[in-house]
């Protein structure tokens, strides 16, 4: 592998260590072992300076010494950032390690924060892709959904910027544009990712991570979850910095963020910050590991946060399966633990047993946390010598001498025998997982033996296991490999998993209707691999792909990178710290054969388990127990105590396992073909003199702008049917390119049926391209499709530029082919592969898409966000309406729709990267030609969605009253139509579906939307009361949106962003840390159809939405005097942090292209928006911020404007909240007594079927002091739960009463080339 050695430095034994780095890596590295045993990787980034500069060379704004005085105030405040439970990551395919997607441990969610510039939200963000947690961080449509070909993002970080790790179509809302980062919750925790770089976080932030070599495997038996609890507590102050939120407040003030997660053998803490403030952040960080306080009062409060975190995952399918795997593991094994922790395990039961939890926690800390058990990574702009001196000053006092970290290598595998375990799913899904315990493989990273198996078992090309499953209509997706989380990769074993997403037919296939025929097909492919023997050419091809990506490695997110590197340092040789994920040292066929032997279903001592997660639990339970009885196999039903889940455990019969082992070879299963898409031309077009000469002259900078973050793209063509933008890369100098285009047609989003046809057409398109495009994906060339609502359909192809044009043309031609009926049975071209004809693939594609729509909004926070956005987007279609139409579609509906779509359309395209002007024109003209003669529509004829005007306090009640009347009328009409449809029993298609829908629609007199609501008080604004979609949901949510107005003025955007920067940390500290409303709290700006707004969301297992809403307004009221008293120094601190965030450059070509595309696809064309906002910030005063706050956010009762426009979405669970406080409830002291006893008798195990009123109309007259405390008397009658609106009729009725804001679109410049 081509590599460059980093600086040779000495380890503890005095031997020099050369850290191998990518030839494309400009950073410098030093590996050091301190005297106390702490292993440290130092990273100097020469492009990172305490004062970053743009292309023009002028330094960004600095924080002066006076501004730093604001830090003294931070020490007086309380709070801490939340941690996150470990994510899971698995290679899909597996040509190189580290290429899979990360699965959030408890349902991750991305939200906006100050300064982000990644695109506005629109009706296109109401699609289902990414709402499903099964899709990890969101589904990446097309080949980009993950191949396992290795990561392209750097610093040793294993998530790809080339497709595998992207959110892609998976963001439920690309919320932003005015905010500075996104907030990502891993395990329900908060993590702010700063900046404006496309789909990922920007580069040029300093960062650090500490991976302590102990985790949940070491939890004491009598206090489950103690490791996780300790992780929380280390954020809550130290001897040197005693204030609870000093660390988090310091980071927020200086453009930073922090997070942590507890794994089985490692606890990982990490942060990022503006480079100039690395020293202050690192000193605070070091105190976690030297002198944490773990104060008694903080512990009592923070245990509620741990408990809230646990409650948020009770309805998360993957967390449920993970806990069931622990519960059904070998008794007494370290796997057989409850690692989340909750109030019962960490507080109530220990106290009942007479345990001093604080003493035990500190005892655990002092026994396990030591320098010689820890690895530290520090990334900064200082020279290596200065970084080393800084680390020695900060961490030299970290205690050592603890000895080797705990090892569990002597333990047997966590599972024994061969079993089937069936678990109930929350979502409408069926997922089958086969798990094979293998020897520990983390230290054998150079062999990539497990990656070899992952590559073949997870392949999606011709002859693959997935193709065979799809041909039979049994599955829609496969994921194979060893996750890199601690559950699957540890000192005890490695767990190799094969995850298959089943169709209904796949669930029913095989004995017992348990998906066992799918397991048989998996073993058929394993048998093939054993019969063929290890193939060196496959491994060599994987090595070639990995070497190409390593050679042209791009930068990764700084905080993700240091976190990953710190964790890997525990098992990777120092010289391989950076390269381990890509390193293929030696082909070891014997090791591959050994692993295959352990997958023999009937071999001596064979051990594997099959987990089935299904919504049809009761049906499958009965059939599984019947199968066990018929076969004489032991089986049992039992209940897992922490999640309260009933599961079925059955030993697999010997006869069944033998049949899998002895089945004859299947002709459709074969090894993949050699990959024709491997690139070979890596020349750079920017080095071509002709290409360089064609670059347009630089435009003069606008007034106040001193430097550019990136050169804007050039408009090459603007003619009927095509608007083409282009930017030749001269910055990143990589042989990659990205092509984005959006297809608009008036026929694309006229009604719910057209929306359903369009989305399904894209899925059929992906299926048609799947096998061939997967090979391209393995070779580093990815594509993505997504429906964008009224704006049309969006397509993207990115990766190595050599063969990019081929995939672009295939994608465009395949869409046009759908309109001609090609691929349909008996028409057009013969299908390229089994299952690729439209008729064969239609049902499975539709079933998968229907399931996604059914699973939308299952989580209350997402439900609230979705409903807010639906109300705001004037022409959006509700997912429930689209679902109804999807269920009625037939294969014959697709071709006419696509033909109509293309009969009149327009393409706007952007070609960026290693492509010349002539090449860009050729690509774009090829797309237009493929669309056909109808692609002649003028750009000005396109229609965009508009944002409604949220009523002010005076108009809110009138709008709600009109909506209720319309909802009642709509419900009556729907009920009448449903009744008529049911009478037509022989009807097909839509008639049948309407009949099925009748039961879900209340009769007119029962329609929730028809119920009367109390007039809105001035502070309430427009309230949208809803019921949780999941009847067993235990959490409530509120999303409160304050609308400002059109976002056309850079000064106004700058003021709003600065207000967001100021409010962000106090909002979290007040509502989450002090008041403990819930684990998930965020705030941030929104840009919706060109209209600015500000949002606060709280998800709570303790309090109803009306109380949460009132608490948000109370917090805002408390901020008024603080804003009025803000000193110039404090304002300068916040301004500097915001400027630093906005001036972050894109970390890669793909990120830059994605960010620029947002400016194009939104039709704003404001490529210099960040630069103009930074210029505007120079003149923003504290009075400007206070005035905006008073006019738009401050409640009228606290002196705010009566013109405040507030929209509050309330999502309530069906049954009572576990710790709901009614009027006259607990005192502040009672906040610490949220015991299960009070909730007993109110809970009904989540099976309550609340109708219309959600919380039964109970008054929650709770109140809390803004600085903390529990609800008490005095909140007033405003905190009353309202009857729930019917969805979607009530939402649509409300929206229909509201006027719309006019659109403010940009004007493109004249094109460079003649039309």
What does this structure look like?
- With 1315 residues, the protein is α+β, with helices and mostly antiparallel strands.
- Helices cover 34% and strands 16% of the residues.
- It is built from 37 helices and 33 strands.
- A 7-stranded mixed sheet has the order 18-19-17-20-16-22-21, sandwiched between helices.
- Strand 5 and strand 6 form a beta hairpin.
- It starts with a strand and ends in a 19-residue tail after the last helix.
- Residues 550-884 form the Peptidase M16 middle/third domain.
- One of its GO terms (cellular component) is cytoplasm.
- GO terms for molecular function: metal ion binding; metalloendopeptidase activity.
- Residues 202-316 form the Peptidase M16 N-terminal domain.
- Residues 1058-1157 form the Coenzyme PQQ synthesis protein F-like C-terminal lobe domain.
Shape: globular
The main sheet comes to:
7 strands, mixed
State the strand order across the main sheet.
18-19-17-20-16-22-21
**What is the tally of helical segments?**
37
pLDDT under 50 segments (min length 5)? 52-113, 130-203, 824-836, 967-1016, 1221-1278
**Helix percent band:** 25-40%
Q: What is the straight-line distance between the termini? A: 47 Å
Overall strand count? 33
Structural class: alpha+beta
Mean pLDDT: 82
Proportion of residues in extended strands: 15-25%
Radius of gyration computed on alpha carbons: 29 Å
Task: Reconstruct the topology from this structure.
Elements: E1 4-5, E2 9-10, E3 16-17, E4 20-21, E5 28-33, E6 39-44, H1 65-68, H2 70-74, E7 88-90, E8 101-103, E9 110-114, E10 179-184, E11 192-194, E12 206-212, H3 226-233, H4 246-253, E13 257-262, E14 267-273, H5 278-286, H6 296-312, H7 317-327, H8 343-352, H9 357-368, E15 374-380, H10 384-395, E16 418-424, E17 430-438, H11 449-457, H12 465-471, E18 475-482, E19 494-502, H13 504-508, H14 516-532, H15 536-551, H16 558-568, H17 589-597, E20 608-614, H18 617-631, E21 635-640, E22 645-651, H19 654-662, H20 689-693, E23 714-719, E24 722-728, E25 736-744, H21 752-778, E26 781-787, E27 793-800, H22 804-819, H23 838-854, H24 860-872, H25 879-888, H26 894-903, E28 906-913, H27 917-931, H28 953-983, H29 990-997, E29 1022-1027, E30 1036-1046, H30 1050-1074, E31 1080-1088, E32 1091-1100, H31 1105-1124, H32 1128-1142, H33 1149-1161, H34 1169-1177, H35 1182-1192, E33 1205-1212, H36 1236-1239, H37 1289-1296
Parallel strand pairs: 6-15, 16-20, 24-28, 29-33
Antiparallel strand pairs: 1-4, 2-3, 5-6, 7-8, 9-10, 10-11, 12-14, 12-15, 13-14, 16-22, 17-19, 17-20, 18-19, 21-22, 23-24, 25-27, 25-28, 26-27, 30-32, 30-33, 31-32
Helix pairs in contact: 3-6, 3-9, 4-5, 4-30, 5-10, 6-8, 11-17, 21-22, 21-23, 21-25, 22-26, 22-27, 23-25, 24-37, 25-29, 28-29, 28-37, 30-31, 30-32, 30-34, 30-35, 32-34
InterPro entries: Metalloenz_LuxS/M16, Pept_M16_N, Pept_M16_Zn_BS, Peptidase_M16, Peptidase_M16_C, Peptidase_M16_M, PqqF-like_C_4
Biased composition (Gly residues): 141-153
Domain Peptidase M16 middle/third: 550-884
């Amino acid at each position: 592998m081509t590599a460059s050695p980093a600086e040779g430095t000495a380890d503890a034994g005095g031997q020099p260590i050369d850290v191998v780095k990518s030839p494309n890596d400009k950073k410098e590295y030093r590996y050091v072992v301190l005297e106390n045993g702490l292993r440290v990787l130092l990273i100097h980034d020469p492009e990172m300076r305490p004062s970053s500069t743009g292309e023009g060379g002028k330094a960004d704004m600095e924080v002066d010494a006076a501004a730093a005085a604001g830090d003294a105030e931070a020490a007086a405040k309380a709070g801490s950032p939340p941690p996150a439970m470990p994510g899971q990551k698995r290679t899909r395919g597996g040509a190189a390690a580290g290429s899979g997607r990360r699965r959030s441990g408890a349902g991750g969610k991305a939200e906006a924060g100050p300064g982000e510039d990644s695109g506005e939200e629109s009706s296109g963000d109401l699609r289902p892709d990414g709402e499903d947690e099964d899709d990890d961080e969101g589904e990446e449509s097309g080949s980009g959904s993950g191949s396992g070909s290795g990561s392209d993002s750097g610093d040793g970080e294993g998530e790809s910027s080339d497709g595998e790790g992207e959110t892609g179509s998976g963001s439920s809302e690309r919320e932003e544009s005015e905010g500075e980062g996104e907030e990502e919750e891993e395990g329900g925790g908060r993590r702010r990712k700063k900046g404006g770089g496309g789909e990922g976080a920007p580069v040029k932030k300093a960062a650090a991570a500490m991976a302590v070599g102990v985790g949940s495997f070491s939890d004491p038996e009598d206090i489950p979850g103690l490791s996780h609890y300790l992780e929380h507590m280390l954020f809550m102050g130290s001897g040197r910095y005693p204030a609870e939120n000093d660390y988090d407040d310091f980071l927020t003030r200086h453009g930073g963020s922090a997070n942590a997660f507890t794994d089985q053998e490692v606890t990982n803490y990490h942060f990022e910050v503006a480079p100039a403030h690395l020293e202050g952040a690192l000193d605070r960080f070091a105190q976690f590991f030297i002198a944490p306080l773990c104060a008694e009062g903080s512990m009592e409060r923070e245990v509620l946060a741990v408990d809230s975190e646990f409650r948020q995952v009770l309805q998360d399918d993957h967390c449920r399966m993970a806990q069931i795997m622990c519960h059904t593991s070998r008794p007494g094994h370290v796997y057989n633990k409850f690692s989340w922790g909750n109030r019962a395990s960490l507080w109530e039961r220990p106290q009942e047993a007479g345990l001093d939890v604080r003493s035990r926690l500190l005892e655990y800390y002092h026994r396990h946390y030591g320098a010689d058990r820890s690895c530290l990574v520090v990334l900064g702009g200082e020279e290596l010598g200065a970084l080393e001196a800084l680390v020695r000053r900060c961490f030299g006092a970290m205690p050592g001498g603890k000895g080797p970290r705990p090892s569990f290598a002597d333990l047997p595998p966590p599972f024994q025998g061969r079993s089937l375990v069936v678990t109930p799913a929350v979502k409408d899904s069926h997922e089958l997982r086969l798990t094979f315990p293998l020897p520990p493989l983390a230290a054998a990273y150079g062999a990539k033996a497990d990656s070899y198996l992952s590559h073949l078992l997870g392949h999606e090309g011709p002859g693959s296991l997935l193709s065979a499953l799809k041909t039979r209509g049994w599955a829609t997706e496969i994921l194979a490999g060893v996750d890199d989380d601690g559950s699957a990769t540890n000192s005890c074993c490695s767990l190799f998993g094969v995850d298959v997403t089943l169709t209904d037919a796949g669930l029913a296939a095989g004995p017992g209707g348990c998906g066992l025929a799918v397991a048989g097909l998996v073993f058929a492919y394993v048998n093939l691999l054993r019969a063929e023997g290890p193939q060196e050419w496959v491994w060599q091809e994987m090595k070639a792909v990995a070497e190409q990506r390593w050679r042209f490695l791009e930068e990764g997110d700084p905080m993700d990178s240091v976190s990953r590197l710190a964790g890997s340092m525990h098992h990777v040789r120092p010289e391989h710290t950076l390269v381990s994920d890509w390193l293929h040292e030696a082909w070891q066929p014997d090791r591959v054969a050994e692993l295959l032997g352990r997958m023999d279903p009937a071999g001596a001592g064979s051990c594997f388990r099959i987990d089935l997660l299904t919504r049809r639990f009761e049906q499958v339970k009965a059939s599984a127990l019947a199968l066990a009885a018929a076969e004489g196999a032991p089986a049992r039903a039992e209940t897992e105590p922490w999640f309260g889940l009933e599961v079925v455990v059955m030993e697999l019969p010997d006869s069944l396992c033998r049949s899998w082992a002895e089945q004859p070879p299947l002709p459709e299963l074969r090894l993949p073909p050699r990959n024709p898409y491997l690139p070979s031309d890596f020349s750079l077009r920017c080095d071509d003199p002709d290409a360089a000469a064609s670059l347009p002259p630089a435009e003069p900078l606008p007034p106040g702008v001193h430097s550019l973050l990136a050169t804007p793209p050039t408009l090459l063509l603007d003619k009927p049917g095509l608007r083409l933008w282009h930017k030749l890369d001269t910055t990143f100098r990589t042989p990659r390119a990205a092509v984005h285009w959006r297809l608009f047609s008036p026929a694309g989003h006229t009604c719910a049926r057209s929306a359903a046809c369009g989305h399904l057409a894209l899925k059929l398109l992906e299926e048609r391209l799947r096998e061939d495009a997967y090979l391209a994906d393995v070779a580093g060339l990815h594509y993505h499709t997504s429906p964008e609502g009224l704006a049309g359909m969006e397509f993207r192809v990115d990766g190595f530029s050599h063969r990019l044009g081929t995939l672009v043309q295939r994608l465009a031609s395949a869409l046009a082919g759908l309109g001609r009926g090609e691929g349909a049975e008996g028409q057009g071209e013969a299908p390229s592969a089994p299952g690729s004809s439209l008729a064969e693939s239609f049902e499975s594609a539709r079933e998968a898409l229907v399931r996604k729509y059914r699973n939308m909004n299952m989580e209350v926070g997402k439900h609230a966000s979705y409903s807010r956005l639906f109300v705001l987007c004037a022409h959006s279609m509700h997912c429930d309406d689209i679902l109804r139409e999807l269920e009625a579609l037939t294969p014959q509906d697709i071709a006419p729709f696509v033909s109509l779509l293309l009969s009149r359309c327009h393409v706007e395209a952007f070609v960026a990267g290693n492509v010349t002007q002539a090449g860009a024109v050729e690509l774009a003209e090829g797309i237009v030609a493929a669309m056909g003669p109808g692609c002649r529509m003028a750009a000005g004829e396109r229609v965009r969605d508009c944002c409604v005007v949220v009523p002010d306090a005076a108009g809110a009640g009138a709008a709600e009253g009109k909506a209720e009347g319309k909802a009642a009328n709509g419900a009556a009409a729907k009920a009448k139509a449903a009744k008529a449809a049911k009478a037509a029993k022989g009807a097909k298609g839509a008639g049948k579906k309407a009949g099925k829908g009748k039961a879900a629609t209340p009769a007119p007199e029962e329609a929730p939307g028809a119920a009367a609501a109390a007039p809105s008080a001035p502070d309430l604004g427009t309230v949208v009361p809803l019921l949780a979609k999941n009847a067993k949901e235990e959490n409530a949510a509120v999303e409160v949106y304050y609308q400002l107005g059109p976002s056309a003025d850079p000064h106004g955007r700058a003021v709003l962003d600065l207000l967001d920067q100021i409010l962000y940390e106090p909002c979290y500290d007040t509502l989450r840390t002090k008041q403990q409303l819930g684990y998930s709290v965020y705030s941030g700006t929104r840009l919706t159809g060109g209209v600015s707004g500000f949002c606060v969301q709280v998800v709570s297992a303790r309090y109803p939405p009306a109380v949460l809403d009132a608490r948000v307004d109370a917090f805002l009221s408390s901020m008024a005097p603080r804003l009025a008293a803000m000193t110039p120094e404090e304002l300068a601190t916040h301004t500097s942090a915001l400027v630093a965030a906005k001036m972050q450059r894109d970390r890669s070509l793909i990120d830059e292209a994605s960010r620029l595309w947002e400016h194009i696809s939104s039709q704003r064309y404001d490529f210099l928006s960040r630069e103009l906002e930074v210029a505007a910030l120079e003149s923003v005063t504290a009075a400007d911020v206070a005035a905006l706050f008073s006019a738009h956010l401050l409640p009228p009762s606290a002196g705010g404007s009566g013109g405040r426009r507030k929209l509050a979405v309330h999502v309530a669970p069906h049954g009572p909240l576990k710790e709901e406080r009614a009027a006259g409830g607990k005192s502040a002291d009672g906040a610490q007594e949220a015991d299960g006893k009070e909730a007993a008798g109110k809970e009904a195990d989540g099976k309550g079927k609340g109708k219309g009123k959600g919380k039964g109309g109970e008054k929650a007259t709770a109140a809390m002091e803004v600085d903390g405390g529990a609800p008490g008397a005095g909140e007033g009658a405003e905190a009353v739960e309202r009857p729930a609106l019917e969805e979607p009729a009530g939402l649509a009725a409300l929206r229909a009463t509201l006027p719309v804001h006019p659109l403010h679109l940009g004007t493109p410049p004249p094109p460079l080339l003649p039309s």
